[in-house]
Inverse folding.
């Protein structure tokens, strides 16, 4: 599984503590989208018909960083790097199953020392696959085991597990909790919110209100999407197999799903 990071760093710690003439530390909101293709945003104008008004506004009124990358294109190593500022060979979370070192320190712990209110909400996915327990550096905590599910999720809210009904959509729940937390913060203290969405990771299951929203939107797939098991040994690295429905039908569903995810991130 690969991960592409969509980061919205609303306000900078550096500005908060060093900007000339500014005494009050600034607030931060960090949003992570899982397996979100780098150009799958309306303002990029690469996908006609795609609607992302929230992201469009943030790019228009804030900043869009065009040249960005991850050092280890895998979920857990990337997440550990975000929280530590270290490469995978240093923090040692080298795959999706590696344990978290006991002495690993996350940057929100430093924020707490500076008086920040901190919250983590969403997909943690580091350490054991069932690890959803509250972690150092966060005053408020919401998570779920492993990848989580889109509907009927089981959340760990500050150490207490809460089961939601089938109509509850994980993305909406996390967003609602985030807004609620922001509204309840102490206005006299700075805050840091880490909102780590499960979406848009496979298996793809949109909110019911969005079902078929893009049914007629053309999706251009790379030729490698249609390479069969037989073709692959002959054509990869030489000549690409023809892009035909016959080839595509020969591909098992699990391979299709894997390619949907990979191509969504890499092309």
């Amino acid at each position: 599984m690969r991960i592409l990071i969509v980061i919205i760093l609303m306000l900078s710690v550096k500005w908060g503590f060093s900007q000339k003439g500014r005494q009050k530390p600034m607030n931060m909101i960090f949003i992570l989208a899982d397996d979100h293709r780098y150009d799958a945003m309306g303002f990029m104008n690469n996908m006609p018909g795609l609607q992302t008004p929230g992201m469009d506004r943030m790019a228009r009124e804030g900043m869009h960083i065009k040249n960005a990358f991850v050092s280890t294109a895998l979920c857990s190593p990337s997440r550990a790097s975000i929280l530590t500022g270290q490469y995978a060979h240093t923090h040692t979370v080298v795959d999706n199953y590696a344990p978290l070192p006991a002495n690993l320190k996350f940057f929100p712990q430093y924020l707490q020392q500076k008086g920040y209110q901190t919250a983590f909400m969403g997909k943690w996915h580091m350490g054991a696959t069932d690890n959803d327990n509250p972690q150092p550096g966060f005053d408020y905590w919401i998570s779920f085991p492993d990848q989580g599910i889109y509907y009927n999720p089981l959340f760990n809210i500050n150490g207490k597990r809460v089961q939601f009904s089938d109509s509850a959509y994980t993305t909406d729940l996390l967003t609602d909790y985030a807004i609620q937390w922001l509204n309840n913060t102490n206005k006299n203290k700075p805050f840091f919110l880490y909102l780590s969405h499960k979406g848009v990771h496979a298996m793809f299951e949109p909110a019911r209100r969005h079902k078929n929203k893009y049914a007629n939107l053309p999706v251009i797939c790379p030729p490698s999407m249609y390479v069969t098991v037989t073709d692959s040994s002959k054509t990869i690295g030489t000549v690409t197999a023809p892009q035909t429905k016959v080839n595509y039908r020969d591909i098992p569903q699990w391979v299709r799903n894997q390619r949907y995810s990979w191509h969504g991130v890499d092309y």
Summary: Residues 1-18, 232-239, 241-246 have pLDDT under 50 and may be disordered.
